[in-house]
Amino acid sequence: xxxxxxxxxxxxxxxxxxxxxxxxxxxxxxxxxxxxxxxxxxxxxxxxxxxxxxxxxxxxxxxxxxxxxxxxxxxxxxxxxxxxxxxxxxxx
Length: 92
Fold this sequence. Notes:
Blueprint: E1 2-5, H1 8-13, H2 15-29, E2 36-39, E3 51-53, E4 61-63, H3 68-80
Parallel strand pairs: 1-2
Antiparallel strand pairs: 1-3, 3-4
Helix pairs in contact: 2-3
């Protein structure tokens, strides 16, 4: 499950482009079983765009400053391969 924060602050920081990169990656790689949703602001505007990834019953991982390039990396490494991309993880 991939959640893109799409509050006003996220959109201003580029969340639409991040969302598009995620959806394009899923289509290009023909991934199945990936649910992509959006949410409003989660109160950490300085870290926008924010993407949260949850795989199965594993803990949710929140990523900050997710540009389209970072989004593609998250989709490849975390969603497809199960490896957390530590450089963009937001502290809990």
